[in-house]
Every structure is written in C-alpha cells, then in structure tokens.
From TrEMBL:
<dbReference type="GO" id="GO:0030170">
    <property type="term" value="F:pyridoxal phosphate binding"/>
</dbReference>
<protein>
    <recommendedName>
        <fullName>Aspartate aminotransferase</fullName>
        <ecNumber>2.6.1.1</ecNumber>
    </recommendedName>
</protein>
<dbReference type="GO" id="GO:0006520">
    <property type="term" value="P:amino acid metabolic process"/>
</dbReference>
<keyword id="KW-0808">Transferase</keyword>
<comment type="similarity">
    <text>Belongs to the class-I pyridoxal-phosphate-dependent aminotransferase family.</text>
</comment>
<dbReference type="InterPro" id="IPR004838">
    <property type="entry name" value="NHTrfase_class1_PyrdxlP-BS"/>
</dbReference>
<keyword id="KW-0663">Pyridoxal phosphate</keyword>
<comment type="function">
    <text>Important for the metabolism of amino acids and Krebs-cycle related organic acids. In plants, it is involved in nitrogen metabolism and in aspects of carbon and energy metabolism.</text>
</comment>
<dbReference type="InterPro" id="IPR015421">
    <property type="entry name" value="PyrdxlP-dep_Trfase_major"/>
</dbReference>
<dbReference type="InterPro" id="IPR000796">
    <property type="entry name" value="Asp_trans"/>
</dbReference>
<dbReference type="Pfam" id="PF00155">
    <property type="entry name" value="Aminotran_1_2"/>
</dbReference>
<feature type="domain" description="Aminotransferase class I/classII large">
    <location>
        <begin position="28"/>
        <end position="394"/>
    </location>
</feature>
<dbReference type="InterPro" id="IPR015424">
    <property type="entry name" value="PyrdxlP-dep_Trfase"/>
</dbReference>
<dbReference type="GO" id="GO:0005739">
    <property type="term" value="C:mitochondrion"/>
</dbReference>
<comment type="subunit">
    <text>Homodimer.</text>
</comment>
<dbReference type="GO" id="GO:0004069">
    <property type="term" value="F:L-aspartate:2-oxoglutarate aminotransferase activity"/>
</dbReference>
<dbReference type="InterPro" id="IPR015422">
    <property type="entry name" value="PyrdxlP-dep_Trfase_small"/>
</dbReference>
Length: 400
C-alpha cells in the first residue's frame, strides 16, 4: 500500500550533515548545522549543565511522573524572567502566560497554531531570507506566510528601507516574525535605534510581533543585551509572542527544551489564553519532557550556577567572534578578491558569506567543506586549525 510513496528530499540544513557523514575524507569540515563546537571541533556539554544534572541524579526524591500540559511551572516562570527581565511589569502584573514547549521549533508551532485558531488575522510576515523551517512550521500551523524584505545582498547588511516599506504595507493586524537577535541565516540585526522605529511602525499599524529567540546570549555574550529588542516591545504594554530555545545558549540541543510566552493586556486574558494553549498542546504531544526543563530550572534558580552559565556562554560567544576575526584576517592576508568585512560585522552563529550555490558546490566537491547552498557557514563549526583550509577553499571558489 505504500509502493507509490516517493522519496522526499533531505532537509536543506540537516541534509548537509547527512552528506558530511558519508564523506570519507580526513579533511572534511561541517559548517552546515548550527551547533557549537569547541576549538577541537567537538560538541560541548557545559560544565554547569553537568553540575545541574548531577544534582538532579543525586536527588532521590525526584520521580518521572508526567509534567502538566504546560510543563514545569518553575521553568516557565524563570524563562519569562530571562527574556523579559526580572523587573518586567508584564510579569509582575501576571499578564504573561508561558508554556514549556519542544525547544524553539515546538514553541513556534504551538504559538502558530494558537494564532490560527484564536487570532483574527491569519497572515504572518517572515523576513527574507529566514531560517528555512519558518515557512513550513507556520504553514502547517494554519497561517498564511508572506515575506518582508530584510537582507540587502549589495551591502550584505540590512535592507531597512525595504523592511519598513513592506511592514508599512502589510494589512493591519498581520503577524510579524522577528528574530530577537543574531538573525539566522544572515547574521544581520537592526540597531537598537532601528528596532525602536520598527516597534513604532508595528504598534501604529497594530501588527502583532512574534519573536523567535533562539540565540539569547549568543550574539553579544550578554543575556540582557541580546534581550533588548524584545524588552523594548514588552515595555510599551502591547501584546507579543516569544518563542525561546535553550538549544544554543545552554547547549541543550537534543533535550528539546524551550518556552512560548504570550504577553497579554491583562492577567485575565493571559489566563484564558493559557487555557487554550493547553487545548493546542494536549492532542499534539500531551505534555513536554521533564529532564531538560529541570536542568534549566536548576541553573536559573541558583545564583552561583546562573553566574557560571553566563561565563561559559560568553566564552562560546567570544570564540565565535574570534573565529570571525581569524577568517577575515586570513582572507585578507591571502589577497582573496572581495570585501569580506561583513564576516566581522555580522552577529551570532552564522556568516552569510555571499558565496553562491555554484561556489558552495565547488567547495564541497574539491575541499570537502559542507554548508548550506545559500552560502551560510556556521562560525561555531570552525577552529584556528581549520581556518586555513576554509580560506583556501573560499579563495579557490572565488578565483577559479
Ligand atoms: N529559530 C531559529 C532562528 C533557529 O536558528 C533555530 C535553530 N536552528 C530554531 C528556531 C529552533 O531550534 P530548536 O528547535 O532546536 O530550539
């Protein structure tokens, strides 16, 4: 009965790793997937995560019962505080409902399904380009996806004028997906002044902001600095949605731990919204897993562990920033044609190199370097040891 099923294409991002794994070359390099690697090219479990896990293991009173539909209450509270700030009026006024979801992706999906059921406008505007999964997540959630201009290939920076024009002509009430910081795949973020202009436009048109916060702390190394755009919107008293992921900033990728917060106008509305979120979640996966959320809660509630986390997080962010500098310096020293200053200007895990699909294919074939076809490289996958190999490959790709 399944003989007619045709083979689906590999996921454009995760498929890069599939191809990488099949390559027997000893010099192969995976710059596709957005996961942090150490200078030795190894995955990293944060010390603070190991400590928290040890505490959890040692606590024999812990059981494996189901969590409630909305997840671990303490985790939810601490997650809202992390993104909105400890002194957030919205939290103090109980206007925020937070539900634990399956990492960033699950938070986006639950938020999308809630909006499709209970919000009057079905169109969501996503930046062009954006993380490849956004379109599929929101379409399957029942929303209609449109794009707004974001990236300017000529300047390799923000197309701010285009962004304002496109959001300015969006229908009143439309949903707008915003990357809270460290835009994926471009590494290009608005300045705080530009964020303020975006906020004014969004509020004046009664658009609904939906923040995707997958990299808090990863952009600048500071959790508070990276949360500024979200806090700017929360401070004006208006509504917004926030999808948080702990995949990158706590290195909890496979634990699938994240949160969806919806900032409402009143506590009463927030509590009714939460009751409906439960109806979205219950038939989808019933309730979320307990382990990852317990790790996060253990770290966020304890001052010492929290401080230790911020230090380890900053070290990851700093290593990425240093990789940017090293790659830029190497390309300049090599005399590779082109202006590569965007490598050090862009923010977060990725550099949008400007290399085209043909050049990417060349680098994969000749140099065993794996990356997405849009020319995005994960700076976290690079090390001092591999910078020369990547430099050779880029040089050859742009001059051959
Ligand atoms: N949003 C963006 C912009 C991302 O880059 C990612 C991870 N690549 C996610 C959401 C979701 O990640 P996860 O589901 O692993 O938290």
């Amino acid at each position: 009965v399944f003989a007619h099923v045709v083979r689906a294409p590999e996921d454009p991002i995760l498929g890069v790793t599939v191809a990488y794994n099949k390559d027997p070359s000893p010099v192969k390099l995976n710059l596709g997937v957005g996961a942090y690697r150490t200078e030795e090219g190894k995955p990293l479990v944060l010390n603070v995560v190991r400590k928290a896990e040890q505490q959890l293991v040692n606590d024999v009173s812990r059981v494996k019962e189901y969590l409630p539909i909305v997840g671990l209450a303490e985790f939810n509270k601490l997650s809202a505080k992390l993104i909105l700030g400890a002194d957030s009026p919205a939290i103090q006024e109980n206007r925020v409902t937070t539900v634990q979801c399956l990492s960033g992706t699950g938070s986006l999906r639950v938020g999308g399904e809630f909006l499709a059921r209970h919000y009057h406008e079905r169109t969501i505007y996503i930046p062009l380009p954006t993380w490849g999964n956004h379109t599929k997540v929101f379409t399957l959630a029942g929303l209609s996806v449109k794009t707004y201009r974001y990236y300017d290939p000529a300047s390799r920076g923000l197309n701010f004028q285009g962004l304002l024009e496109d959001l300015g002509s969006a229908p009143s009430g439309a949903i707008v997906l915003l990357h809270a910081c460290a835009h994926n795949p471009t590494g290009v973020d608005p300045t705080l002044e530009q964020w303020e202009q975006i906020r004014q436009l969004i509020r004046s048109k009664a658009l609904l902001p939906f923040f995707d916060s997958a990299y808090q702390g990863f952009a600048s190394g500071s959790l508070d600095a990276d949360a500024q755009p979200v806090r700017l919107f929360a401070a004006d008293g208006g509504e917004c949605l926030i999808a948080q992921s702990y995949a990158k900033n706590m290195g909890l990728y496979g634990e699938r731990v994240g949160a969806l917060s919806i900032v409402c106008k009143t506590a009463d509305v927030a509590s009714r919204v939460e009751s409906q979120l439960k109806l979205v979640i219950r038939p989808m996966y019933s309730n979320p897993p307990i382990h990852g959320a317990s790790i996060v809660a253990t770290i966020l509630r304890d001052r010492d562990l929290y401080n230790e986390w911020t230090i380890e997080l900053k070290a990851m962010a700093d290593r990425i920033i240093s990789m940017r500098q090293q790659l830029f310096d190497a390309l300049r020293a090599r005399g590779t044609p082109g202006d590569w200053s965007h490598i050090i200007k862009q923010i977060g895990m990725f550099t949008f190199t400007g290399l085209n699909a043909e050049q990417v294919a060349f680098m994969t074939k000749e140099y065993h370097i794996y990356m997405t076809f849009d020319g995005r490289i994960s700076m976290a996958g690079l090390s001092s040891r591999t910078v020369p190999h990547l430099t050779d490959a880029i040089h050859a790709a742009v001059t051959h």
